[in-house]
Amino acid sequence: MTNHPPRYTPEQIEQRWQERWELDGLYRAKIDPARPKYYALTMLPYPSGDLHIGHWYAMTPSDARARYLRMRGYNVMYPIGFDAFGLPAENAAIQRGIHPKQWTYSNIANMRKQLRSMGAMWDWDREAVSCDPEYYKWTQWIFTQLFKHGLAYKKLSPVDWCPNCNTTLAREQVWGDDRHCERCKTPVIKKNLNQWYFRITKYADELLNFEGIDWPERVRTLQTNWIGRSAGAQVTFLSAAADPIEVFTTRPDTLWGATFMVLAPEHPLVAKLTTPAQTAAVDAYIAEVTRRTDIEREATGKDKTGVFIGAFATNPVNGAQIPIWIADYVLVTYGTGAIMAVPAHDERDFEFALKFGLPILPVIDRPDGLTKSCAPAGTMQPGFAAALRAENIACEELDGALCCTIPPSKVARYVEIAQRFVQPGKWTEVIGTRWEFIFGPQDTAVWNSQPAGQEILARCQQLDAPARSKRTLMELLWAVEFYRDALYHSEYGAMINSGDFTGTPGATAKNKVTDWLQQQGSGKTAVTYRLRDWLISRQRYWGTPIPIVYCPACGQVPVPDDQLPVQLPEDVEWKPTGESPLKLHPNWSNTTCPKCSQPAQRDTDTMDTFMCSSWYHLRYLSPKFADGPFDPREFAYWMPVDSYTGGAEHATMHLIYTRFFHKVLRDLGITSGEEPMAQLRNQGQILGPDGQRMSKSRGNVIDPDAQVRKYGADTVRAFLMFGYRWVDGGPWGTDNIEGVSRWLNRVWALATEAGPAAGTKTDADDARSLQRITHQTIKKVSDDYESYEFNTIISALMVLTNALHKLRATAGASPAWEAAVNTLLKLMAPATPHIAEELWAQRGCRTPYIRKHGRNTTQRQPPMRC
RNA sequence: GCCGAAGUGGCGGAAUUGGCAGACGCGCGCGACUCAAAAUCGCGUUCCUUCGGGAGUGAGGGUUCGAUUCCCUCCUUCGGCACCA
User: Fold this and answer.
1) Is the shortest CB-to-strand distance from A798 to strand B under 7 Å?
2) Distance B39 C1' – A16 CA (angstroms)
3) Mean of pLDDT values over A399-418
4) CA dist A291 to A169, A276, A285, A333, Å?
5) Is the CB of A302 under 7 A from strand B?
6) Å between CA of A814 and C1' of B66
7) Taking 70 as the threshold, does the pLDDT of residue A174 lie above it?
8) Which of A117, A118, A42 is nearest to A80 (CA)?
9) CATH of A138-217+532-610 among 3.30.450.20, 2.60.290.11, 3.40.50.620, 2.40.50.140
10) Which of A86-100, A232-246, A511-525, A620-634 is least confident?
11) Can you tell me the distance from the alpha carbon of A695 to that of A509, in angstroms, rounded to the nearest whole number?
12) What is the spatial distance, in angstroms and rounded to an integer, between the CA atom of A422 and the C1' atom of B45?
């Protein structure tokens, strides 16, 4: 053997091709109405300093897919940029004395280099960097647009504050049971601050509609739950002094069972309604609740606390006077901050009523028909059990008591028998679907109203000493363990004990009552959301300044368009004081009012960085455009984003904000279309080899640069596609990458080594099976790119490679062989572009770039030749 | 507690309009090449087996000629929400 073909040396070929692609501007996306467009987008990185293997995992398959679509003939735009504002820059500045700007831009320079080593087809001409003044000018402009249209407002309220990051956080940035900061894991505290909010709640209903977009079920569910729409009614109760107290309820059909009210301790009416006798207790309770942090509230569990404020309200459906309490299980931030308590059909209210001895009245029939009766020893005369048995009513003895679960059809019969057998001076009862107390023959009492319940309780207390300690009838029944599962339920069912509405079936009850309330003028249908408005003020330096000026005469004035951007000053102290660094600047905040030219002050907070990332996909369209946030011509051609990929951890943050922005801008006439991203796919996460999240402190971080040096970018790319289900991710596998490396070497050998000697006979069957597997691979690879199943793309390519290997001796001289090798290279090109390009060129193919070759299909077409 | 997703060899993972379970890769075993090793190549590799077979996709049940795939119950893991009226 004298003529050894050159070995596969990725370090020699990869950089060469990257430079050539760049030089020829191969991946510059230009508007071309003749071709179908495809906007492929992957979530922009934060310039933390080093490209992480996680970036590779997220971006490589996206890039491969974009390259695939390009080969299919689409005009593909695949842009990249940096989400460059944010806390890490400032923290690095504090720790190392580097200016956040310098830190950020040098990181960006480094990451650009690293990103290029991936061999991705990014259009660097479209790069956008969110901390560039030309970028944040338009972030500010969008803010002023929202302000002018009443969608941005300032409000003093208790907000979540991270004591480590020294700034406020949006609600969705507070995570976990201990309510910690999403970024640094420090538990948050509450502060009362005057802050800017965006009215995202105005778009709640629209954000619930995912029609026409192809997003993962999981993200849609997360967003739906986060928005948390509940439909019901708002009902007005009146205090003795006729103050209206509004409550929100999803169960207007239970109004007749509202036996008390609960207001949030912070409810504005509390001070006014509290009677003098209760003032001290109420003040003490409020003080205690305010002192407690949310975490302590959580720690105290669900044990209900509360206090009676001395006042009563009138239930609008029956005029009943019901006591008003305050309790911290009612949240001032949800609904109206006040509830009607229906203890018989709401678990929390039930618990509260039981604890504080408040009355309970069942008003909804049990749909499951569960009916129970329990007669302690000595309650019934002998023969009772036998009489029941004769009726086929099954009972069991529990601690001497005769406990029966009565079939619905036998309830009436049971009552008759019990009447006959109850001992004089004793009683028994039937509960569940019926609430009837049996004192003797011809002597039963039905619990169908609050007063009736009181009377029954009084009778029982006369007969039975232990009952005298019970404050309510329900408390008496709760003492019987056997009854517990039948005393409370929250199902829909026929209305009972509800005046004229008694008997209304569960299916229609809610609507009938709501309609009636509306006629009476004491209620209306209402919808409440869990979603809160988006708090965007941050008390940090490295962010977009809020373009608002406070004028003593004119109030809040947005900075006019021609004065944007409000530049971030560079000469600041960024010590973490808890105040905005911009506030401490000697003169930055001093300005003049854009309206009246009198001295005025700038807002010294900066914006949540999620604002920057809510519209970056629009800036990519035309990052240098000066007459607006983007060039409308580019928008018209490229939008919406056809495929958006990134982590699912952004489901309730970035991915909801960006939809909100899009809809706002649409309503302002700036954009069009319902949604910004037509299709979304989430990738999973790469963990350390130990199965733990990669982190420097654990020492399990995989450095992509080192892997590229060792194996080459193509191997790393193909391994990341091959080793995992993309949606799942998993631990970095140190072993599997060797297999991918071997595969590329085998491909190299196949394409470069001399074939069988001239004149070697071809086995027709083998040539045919080579052709068959070639076409099967084309189909498999195409289908799997469409469905983001990247691991099976690589395995299909390996299968084809193995077949080539095996059939070389017998089919290596056939046309099918040449077609198969060329097809393999083309099918590999999206995943492993450098080696494919190199071998393509080495084979003397006339088309200069493999990617220019048209689509591969399974449709009949001549064997591909280069 | 509520909602959602997922459980397949020693490992990563294939296969679902219901049709040969374990593709592809790792690892492992045997062999070739080599003085030797690495690399490479070839063969084998779900488990049990008395070598005839038998069992097998988290567990149990059901539908079916046939179930990893569909239905019911349960278990485990992960993610989200959690006093949201």
Assistant:
1) yes
2) 27
3) 91
4) 20, 23, 10, 18
5) yes
6) 42
7) yes
8) A42
9) 3.40.50.620
10) A86-100
11) 56
12) 77
Higher pLDDT, A491 or A138: A138
- In this structure, which topology does domain A704-852 adopt according to CATH? Isoleucyl-tRNA Synthetase; Domain 1 (1.10.730)
Give CA–CA dist A222/A651, Å, rounded: 7
- Which runs of consecutive H residues, i.e. helices, occur in A555-674? 581-584, 616-619, 632-638, 654-667
Nearest to A791 by CA among A731, A742, A831, A851: A831
Domain A230-357+501-528: CATH class, spelled out = alpha beta
- Residue A446: name the closest of A502, A501, A394 by CA: A502
Preceding omega of A640 cis (within 30 degrees of 0): yes
Token pair for residue A445?
């009492």
The complex scores an ipTM of 0.94
Domain residue ranges of chain A, discontinuous segments joined by +: 138-217+532-610, 230-357+501-528, 372-488, 704-852
Place of tokens 């060797």: A738
Q: Which of residues 643-672 of A touch strand B (CB under 7 A)?
A: 652
pLDDT at position A513: 96
Chain B: nucleotides under 7 Å from a protein CB? 3-5, 11-15, 23-27, 39-42, 80-85
| Fold match, A138-217+532-610 / A704-852 | no
What pLDDT is stored for residue A847 in this prediction?
60
pLDDT in tens, A355-389: 999 999 999 999 888 899 999 998 999 999 999 99
Q: Which of residues 27-46 of A touch strand B (CB under 7 A)?
A: none
Asked whether the predicted pLDDT for residue A13 surpasses 50, the reply is yes
Task: Return the percentage of chain A with pLDDT > 70, whole number.
Answer: 95
Q: What is the pLDDT of residue A556?
A: 96
Mean pLDDT across chain A: 90
- Identify which has the larger pLDDT, A598 or A186: A598
Query: What DSSP assignment string belongs to A486-535?
Result: HH-------B-S-GGGTT--HHHHHHHHHHHHHHHTSEEEEEE-S---EE
Strand B proximal to A733 Cβ, under 7 A: yes
User: How many C-beta atoms lie closer than 10 Å to residue A323's C-beta?
Assistant: 18
Contact A463, A425 (CB under 8 A): yes
Choose among A393, A398, A394, A464: nearest CA to A428: A464
Residue A621, token pair as written in the block: 């369209």
Q: Which helix (H) or strand (E) holds A828?
A: helix A815-828
Q: Is the pLDDT of residue A5 over 80?
A: no
- Strands of the sheet containing A152-162, edge to edge, are A167-169, A152-162, A189-198, A534-535
Distance CA A393, CA A371 (A): 12
How many whole angstroms separate alpha carbon A100 and alpha carbon A93? 5
Averaged pLDDT for residues A182-196 = 83
